[in-house]
Amino acid sequence: MASVLSYESLVHAVAGAVGSVTAMTVFFPLDTARLRLQVDEKRKSKTTHMVLLEIIKEEGLLAPYRGWFPVISSLCCSNFVYFYTFNSLKALWVKGQHSTTGKDLVVGFVAGVVNVLLTTPLWVVNTRLKLQGAKFRNEDIVPTNYKGIIDAFHQIIRDEGISALWNGTFPSLLLVFNPAIQFMFYEGLKRQLLKKRMKLSSLDVFIIGAVAKAIATTVTYPLQTVQSILRFGRHRLNPENRTLGSLRNILYLLHQRVRRFGIMGLYKGLEAKLLQTVLTAALMFLVYEKLTAATFTVMGLKRAHKH
Asked: Solcar repeat ranges (predicted)?
């Protein structure tokens, strides 16, 4: 029990949250472009920079940063939960022995499930606030009018019922494999490099973080597109399938997209997503590693478990 409430888990959680917030803020416009490409199928521009230029031209200079605050607050909670759970479980299970890739994957998966169940409502509100006021090419999209995070929660519960806050939970649970795959590759690559040298440089950490995230993102991207559409919840879906997030709906949305755009339709916005997530993950891991190392040094603590 002590390891779950330990100071070390708290340091990891805070460092993880700070790292992700820093990285997300730097690359936020890329995420805006990715979300538009996923949700607004009628958008002609395929490349990230063209979409960003269009958004700025039509909606103003700050439009790529629309919804920044809810995204950052959700990210903060989400990463805090993820890193805290990941490191607590690892401490409980590994107990001073060397960790293995398999254990990293299982721990990453469990931490991800806990994270999804606790934070999905934040991400649903997020997606909507981020797309509010956007100029869509698709006429089927019903616009929203929320004053902020609390008002969005209130309106969604009032108009769509409390379960709407968990829209897209099913693909999100499948997407738990994304951070689990990412952490598995990250920890694995780190172990390989540490065999060859004593210490990893900032560039090493940055590159390992980038490679791990690129693999995880490409593997799970079609599900991310479905997740965005479900969270947004403003598409008029086939009426008999109102239970958003059922497996049938996921398959229906994937099938629709392949029928209309071919197999590459599943990867619409991948370029923006890869640019954003790879750079964000690399920067996040860098800040996270530096912060945890600095904190433990300042507190005079040796890291209890060597990776």
From this structure: 7-92, 99-192, 200-294
At 8, which amino acid appears? Answer: E
Residue 246 lies in a domain: yes
CB under 8 Å to 132, separation ≥6 — which residues? 66, 67, 143, 144, 145, 146
Hey, how many other C-beta atoms are within 10 angstroms of the C-beta on 299?
A: 10
- Distance (Å) of CA 184 to CA 76, 97, 112, 216: 22, 17, 13, 10
pLDDT of residue 246: 65
Other C-beta atoms within 10 Å of 190: how many?
A: 18
In a domain, residue 274? The reply is: no
194 with 261, same domain: the answer is: yes
- Domain carrying residue 155: 67-131+138-167
94 shares a domain with 77: yes
For residues 271 and 268, give the distance between their C-alpha atoms in angstroms, rounded to a whole number: 8
pTM: 0.63
pLDDT in tens, 216-251: 888 888 888 888 877 787 655 554 444 445 677 778
Q: Give the pLDDT confidence of 47-71 residue by residue, as tens digits.
A: 788 888 888 888 888 888 887 888 8
Looking at the structure, tell me whether residues 52 and 4 fall in a common domain: yes
Number of domains making up the chain = 3
